[in-house]
Amino acid sequence: LSNTRAIEDGPLGFFEILPVEMICNILYELSIVDLSVLTIVSKSVRGLVECFIDSKLGESRIQLKVSLHKPSSQEHHASFMQHFHRLGVLQKRITCLYTTKDRLRIMEQFIRKMDLLSCMSCSNHCLALTCYGRFLHTV
Question: What is the structure's pLDDT at 60?
């Protein structure tokens, strides 16, 4: 009973007894909005989500599987904008306790991972630039 109480009172609660792979699989199944909400539960949980986002599995979860450099329909445009708005909220919540210098460094790394800077040679109709703007406006 006291062992259960110690686990329950730990910084991650019952997550502490789960293997890292299982925690990653659970986080992978959550939506970006759910991950964002999870980051404001506690500092320990925020660190857990941050590590997940930095992992290969986390990167594959948040990245779109389509190219933003090609013209798309209006519905796709709206869903992409919503996706990048949610990513902005997630990043804002993950980095809320960091200094401005560290937040800027983390944002730069995130933007490079998302490959949003590769659109500098695209036409004016490149959706990646609009998504990049939505992300930065949200953060």
Answer: 87
